[in-house]
Design goal:
single chain; 145 residues; mainly alpha
Length: 145
């Protein structure tokens, strides 16, 4: 497996990204073509188009919602434990000052650079992307959905 860093940390789920969604887009194209080319059955094609859109949208939302909600809780817990291990302080002391995006970005930092990066993040209110870009020793997360 390739070493993870900023440029390659995005993860894809092949069944959804490369099979299901292309099929939904294909069906959407076919149904829109039906609306245009089959005026006698226009309402049927409009209903099919609406159904395809709803199926695609709902599948995306449900898949994302369940996985990310659970995962975000785990990321917070792991980060809280790691912060305590490195600093001896509870995360709750500063957690209200950090967004989840900042916490998620900070988790990629090595133990050596994490405390200083947290201090910079709090002082300068760094955006998650800026945090990721400033990490010199990237710690991969191969488990993220």
């Amino acid at each position: 497996m390739k070493e993870q860093e900023y440029k390659n940390h995005t993860r894809y789920y092949p069944a959804h990204h490369f099979v299901f969604y292309p099929l939904v887009i294909l069906l959407l194209g076919i149904s829109i073509r039906g609306i245009i080319n089959d005026p006698g059955n226009r309402w049927e094609w409009i209903i099919i188009t609406a159904l395809v859109l709803m199926i695609g949208w709902l599948s995306f939302m449900v898949r994302q919602h369940y996985a990310l909600t659970c995962q975000n809780r785990i990321v917070r817990l792991e980060f809280s434990l790691r912060y305590y291990q490195l600093t001896g302080h509870r995360l709750e002391e500063i957690e209200a000052q950090l967004t989840f995006g900042q916490i998620a970005a900070l988790r990629f930092a090595s133990d050596a650079e994490l405390p200083e990066l947290i201090t910079r993040t709090l002082a300068d209110n760094l955006e998650p992307d800026a945090i990721k870009r400033s990490i010199t020793n990237w710690q991969p997360d191969h488990m993220r959905v």
